[in-house]
User: Which sequence fits this backbone?
């Protein structure tokens, strides 16, 4: 709980400084103004050293007395003031809740503060970048979906619980995880799993004991809240992340976003991206290696288009092993799902596939 | 655990009888045959007494030596044999895993057992109806997505855990819940919540203590696994379910499926539908009652079309209160989300809206 207090104090300090600066500008008769990093493709680069997407140093300025900026300026202050309130009251809100909470018509006008949550979301992104505080630390929750299972005792909001003692389910990862503490754990790595039915298989096969790992699923594309949670765990425990997804362009994309960050959130890569991630499967080589030719699926046009795009990703385009995978997929014209391993036997994934690949360090990186 | 054993014994018995009967028919030189209830709209009726959708008594027959049936017949036996194996081994599988597990080419032919999981899924539905055993009791998991939070201690697979001691998250409801036992609980009803961000709000506001209830969310449309879980809890604990969803045709649909069953699963209404459900909100009256005119959203064409369809639902078409809601929505031309209540204040939903409506029994039924 001390931890939570420190985080909040830091956020409040930044919001207060932001407000004070603007107040001083108003008092001294200037048009109040603030800067924000340009979050456009032209200002996003791949940092070869940190291996993440990041923003360059281009800035734009938002000025109250510029008519093109006035609305956004007003909205930014509204959101900042609301976040200050949420933090002070110890509450967190969802993105859509924020929008509804702040929508009202302005006095003596028919103008609304916000017309939809795209407007409020975009202002929130700007504020996050401008103040250099993570949205969650402004007490706006990320999308919650996904769960964790394994030999780890966590504490949050005064509760302590063991994620290996939750029956067949796991802990439902909430949208706010900044205040999660690890009481103790026994694991060598985090296994990040695309599919929730695969998660269930691996829980049943007790892979967390066999391979000494924590299981996390995001039920498809890992939503922001789950990526943040993986990042926090990986940093606190200094554990590598091993990604286990479908062998298709969408699986490669899930891995990419987890490891390198996303264009939309490039200003946050430092707090989201997990450079210490490796890719265990599925790969195109698995198809022949494990005799899975009969359980592949034909690529759709959208898959083929995505392969072409991924060949241009900064982290793939000079990486022979990854380029080989993408080309192989194009040649074979097929994708392979995680669950296709059940074609060998239900426990094949836990008894042979994962142990062989993980113990043999057969990763793509 | 005794409980689990009994369930499994019953399923195994039914599968064995099914197999024996077919074997006897083969031995006596007949074409093996089995019946299954017709799962078509023409055979689905609304039972006014039980208040659920159910199948009539029309049957169809599947006969091995009828060329139009041979493939499906073979598939049915494959699935039945596999389920027998899963139950005996104490494993559960996902729907897609089942497909992959059983897909192989037939000896001396290029014919595959199954071409996609739609084929295997449809055979599974048939088998479920024919044997009159729930898919989960054949050890095929339902879709898992959603969580529970509140004053209830559950046990499953040898673990016992308290769903009010899980930080800001809850227990991630797994796809197999047949073996969940309730150790103890303190609740007067189950609150079934559409939106996961609303779930987070209500956890934060400690509504489970204030109103003495359990919170369950399905993160949108409640998936089959969550509906089954709500049904089991509601029956075991003899608790009513109060549904809290968006005030729009989709929210009404979520409520309908939870309470009355669905056309697709009419043969399972007895095990899924929760007739003991009431609707607390959002309603069209809430908009004026609570001054939410500024935070409604315009109906789309698809919404308008759905309103017309819902007016024909057997449980709505003779229900004046529900017809009034549907007509009001059409007249106003708007929908209202749960989270729009945040427009009053963040805690409005927990301090005023829900207590007032639930304690005052202001429900739609």
Assistant:
């Amino acid at each position: 709980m001390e931890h939570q207090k420190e985080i909040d104090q830091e956020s409040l300090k930044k919001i207060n400084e932001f407000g004070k600066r603007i107040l001083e500008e108003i008092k001294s008769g200037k048009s109040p103004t603030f800067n924000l990093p340009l979050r456009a493709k032209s200002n996003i680069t791949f940092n070869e050293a940190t291996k993440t997407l990041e923003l360059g140093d281009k800035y734009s300025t938002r000025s109250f007395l510029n008519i093109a900026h006035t609305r956004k300026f007003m909205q930014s202050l509204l959101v900042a003031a609301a976040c200050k309130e949420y933090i002070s009251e110890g509450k967190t809100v969802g993105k859509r809740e924020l929008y509804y909470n702040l929508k009202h018509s302005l006095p003596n006008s028919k103008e609304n503060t916000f017309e939809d949550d795209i407007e409020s979301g975009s202002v929130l992104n700007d504020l996050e970048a401008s103040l250099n505080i993570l949205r969650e630390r402004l007490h706006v929750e990320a999308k919650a979906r996904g769960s964790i299972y394994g030999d780890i005792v966590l504490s949050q909001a005064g509760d302590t619980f063991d994620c290996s003692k939750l029956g067949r389910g796991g802990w439902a990862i909430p949208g706010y995880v900044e205040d999660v503490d690890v009481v103790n754990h026994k694991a060598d790595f985090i296994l990040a799993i695309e599919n929730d039915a695969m998660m269930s298989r691996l829980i049943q096969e007790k892979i967390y004991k066999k391979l000494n790992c924590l299981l996390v699923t995001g039920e498809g594309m890992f939503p922001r809240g789950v990526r943040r949670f993986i990042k926090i765990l990986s940093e606190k425990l200094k554990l590598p992340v091993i990604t286990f997804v479908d062998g298709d362009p969408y699986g490669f994309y899930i891995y990419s976003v987890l490891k390198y960050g996303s264009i939309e959130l490039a200003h946050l890569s430092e707090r989201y991206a997990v450079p210490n991630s490796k890719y265990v499967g599925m790969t195109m080589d698995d198809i022949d290696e494990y005799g899975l030719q009969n359980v592949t699926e034909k690529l759709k046009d959208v898959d083929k288009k995505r392969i072409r795009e991924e060949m241009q990703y900064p982290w793939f385009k000079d990486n022979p092993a990854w380029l080989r995978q993408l080309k192989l997929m194009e040649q074979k014209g097929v994708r392979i799902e995680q669950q296709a391993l059940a074609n060998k036997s239900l426990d094949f994934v836990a008894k042979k596939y994962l142990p062989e690949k993980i113990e043999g360090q057969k990763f793509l990186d």
User: Anything to note?
Assistant: The CA atoms of residues 287 and 293 of chain B lie 6 Å apart.
